[in-house]
């Protein structure tokens, strides 16, 4: 793990990159990294994020600045800007059931090619997908999802990069921290090694590439 | 009584002590207000919490304690938090005893459509498809009709949420179940006759000899 400034971290992300962003309706989202993405005007992003948040919050900022060209998400109904851009074909949107979304990312981070899920069988979601029977029950083959960058927000990070999360801001963060080539983290508090007890570490330090220095 | 409150009160009677329950957005959210205090029900919020409590008082909200809509909530003693893979493992894995969801249409076979209106409203399915697929019991809580049009239809013409049949539909006029795979009128709301229900229901309902009145 290397500690870097927010400007340096975002400078590493090229326009057109595939980026996973943690958070659920803007809760547990690395807001400062998104502000810097907007400031450095990283365009043509393929965004993988649970939702489109709301205007001005979380990944919602990326839609306001028209930085997204492709979105994989589970729900975008609370961001009119994202809806508008989807209906105007400015962004290609792939809507995925939430349980499938998280398992595809988990698979991507765990070296699996994909998962078999019963969710979506017999619905529009099944279109174009392989259906596989296991013990007489139908499942859809859903392939793994990975990204070049994961932008993660933690409650605590220690000097080594061990992470702990707070309440409902955990959500997709620890899953995404395993599924990207480069993992960039912001934390509410950066604390000495040992403050987070081994039992309470959720994301182990070796998964974190860059920690944004606070201050 | 307000139609939404009729629905919420009747659904609340379906919950048992020890149940792990997931409530959808809208009318389902109201159900929590009508669960008797002596009933120990665990409410799950799919963004990663079991043990959700009421909306906190003014000034007591915490930015990392929210429901699936991102709104502030509280956590009850004994609450637990977890990531989204665990949350949907609970849902898809059959650990959630009851889910209560809103609906756009339910058809005579018990199929539910509640996630999109093609060309009009495409918000995404969020957790709905996983909930209907994986929860032990699926209860739909919705108004019987919208703008004079029955939401209990012969066949859904909106995209289905799951191929799985729901277990119970509770509306402001009736309770409908699906024994033997056919929509059956189980109860009517206080002051509503069987004839009145049938008159505003598009789907053909099986009507047993005795249709009880909803207890609220």
UniProtKB/TrEMBL annotation, chain A:
GO molecular function annotations of the record = CoA-transferase activity
Q: Does the keyword Transport apply?
A: no
The protein in question is named CoA transferase subunit A
Q: Which organism is it from?
A: Bradyrhizobium frederickii
**Keyword terms, alphabetized:** Transferase
Task: Return the SMART domains for the record.
Answer: CoA_trans
Q: Which Pfam family is one of those matched by this entry? A: CoA_trans
UniProtKB/TrEMBL annotation, chain B:
Organism of origin is Bradyrhizobium frederickii
The entry's family comment says:
Belongs to the 3-oxoacid CoA-transferase subunit B family.
| NCBIfam families linked to this entry | pcaJ_scoB_fam
Q: Name one Pfam family in it.
A: CoA_trans
Q: Give a yes or no for keyword Transmembrane helix in this entry.
A: no
Instruction: Name the Gene3D superfamilies on file.
Output: Glutaconate Coenzyme A-transferase
- Keywords for this protein: Transferase
**Record-given protein name:** CoA transferase subunit B
Q: Which GO terms describe its molecular function?
A: CoA-transferase activity
């Amino acid at each position: 793990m290397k500690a870097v400034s927010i400007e340096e971290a975002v400078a590493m992300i090229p326009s057109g990159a595939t980026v996973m962003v943690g958070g659920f309706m803007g809760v547990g989202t690395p807001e400062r990294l998104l502000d810097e993405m907007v400031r450095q005007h990283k365009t043509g992003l393929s965004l993988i994020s649970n939702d489109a948040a709301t205007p001005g919050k979380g990944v919602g900022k990326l839609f306001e600045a028209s930085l997204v060209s492709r979105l994989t998400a589970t729900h975008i109904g609370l961001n009119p800007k994202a809806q508008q851009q989807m209906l105007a074909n400015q962004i290609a949107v792939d809507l995925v059931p939430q349980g499938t979304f998280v398992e595809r990312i988990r698979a991507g981070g765990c070296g699996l090619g994909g998962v078999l899920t019963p969710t979506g069988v017999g619905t529009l979601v099944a279109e174009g997908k392989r259906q596989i029977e296991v013990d007489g029950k139908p499942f859809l083959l859903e392939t793994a999802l990975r990204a070049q960058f994961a932008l993660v927000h933690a409650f605590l990070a220690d000097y080594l990069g061990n992470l702990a999360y707070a309440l409902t801001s955990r959500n997709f963060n620890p899953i995404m921290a395993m599924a990207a080539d480069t993992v960039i983290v912001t934390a509410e508090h950066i604390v000495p090694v040992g403050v987070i007890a081994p039992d309470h570490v959720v994301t182990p330090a070796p998964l974190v590439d860059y920690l944004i220095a606070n201050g | 009584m307000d139609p939404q409150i009729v629905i919420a009160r009747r659904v609340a009677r379906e919950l048992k002590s020890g149940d792990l329950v997931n409530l959808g957005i809208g009318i389902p959210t109201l159900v929590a207000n009508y669960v008797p205090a002596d009933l120990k029900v665990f409410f799950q919020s799919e963004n990663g919490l079991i043990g959700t409590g009421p909306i906190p008082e003014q000034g007591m909200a915490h930015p990392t304690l929210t429901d699936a809509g991102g709104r502030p909530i509280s956590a009850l003693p004994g609450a637990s938090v977890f990531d989204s893979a665990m949350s949907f493992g609970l849902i898809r894995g059959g650990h959630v005893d009851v889910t209560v969801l809103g609906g756009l249409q339910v058809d005579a076979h018990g199929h539910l459509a509640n996630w999109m209106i093609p060309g009009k409203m495409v918000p995404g399915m969020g957790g709905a498809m996983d909930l209907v697929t994986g929860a032990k019991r699926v209860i739909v809580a919705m108004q019987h009709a919208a703008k004079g049009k029955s939401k209990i239809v012969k066949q859904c013409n909106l995209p289905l949420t799951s191929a799985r049949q729901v277990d119970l539909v509770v509306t402001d006029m009736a309770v409908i179940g699906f024994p033997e795979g056919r929509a059956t009128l189980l109860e009517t709301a206080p002051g509503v006759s069987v004839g009145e229900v049938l008159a505003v229901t598009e789907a053909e309902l099986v009507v047993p000899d005795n249709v009880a009145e909803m207890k609220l």
